[in-house]
Amino acid sequence: MSVNKIVIDTDIFIDYLRGWPNAKSFFEKIESTHIFFSAVTEAEILSGKECSKPERIKGAFEILSRGTKIPVDNRIAKFSGYLRRTYDVEVVSDAIIAATALVMKAKLITRNLKDFKKIKEISVEAPY
Fold first, then answer.
1. For residue 9, which of 26, 55, 107, 126 sits 20 to 30 Å off, Cα-Cα?
2. What is the pLDDT along the chain (128 residues), one digit of tens a residue?
3. Residue 19: left (phi > 0), alpha (psi -120 to 50), or beta?
4. Chain centroid to CA 47
5. Domain range annotation of the chain
6. Measured between alpha carbons, how far is 43 from 89 in angstroms, rounded to an integer?
7. 5-125 placed in CATH 3.40.50.150
8. Which residues in 18-50 are b (16+ Cβ under 10 Å) and which e?
């Protein structure tokens, strides 16, 4: 992957935690890339069934430690409101993740192309 900075959506981390070979291969390919994720992504992962056991929580923290967590600050909050209103983004967490990519000037990596492709201000790509 030639992009220097990426924001990874929650679904890709969850695929990795579920042991999907494509997700594991993706994370191997991006080792030299600057990886970012939203604090919302961490909350979504830790609240899901993938983290129902202590060893799964450990796995979640291990994969998240490969990237940099971006907190939801004023800029991200304002942009997420703008993106949600302008593009009718249904889920608040998706708007926050998209705003994180916008603020970080990074490509958003997700399998959820349907909901993110309509946002003109960000570049979106499916990893597999």
1. 55
2. 446 899 999 999 999 999 999 999 999 999 878 999 999 999 999 998 888 888 888 989 999 999 999 999 999 999 999 999 999 999 999 999 999 999 999 999 999 999 999 999 999 999 99
3. left
4. 15
5. 5-125
6. 19
7. no
8. eeeeebeebbeebeebebbbbbbbbebbeeeeb
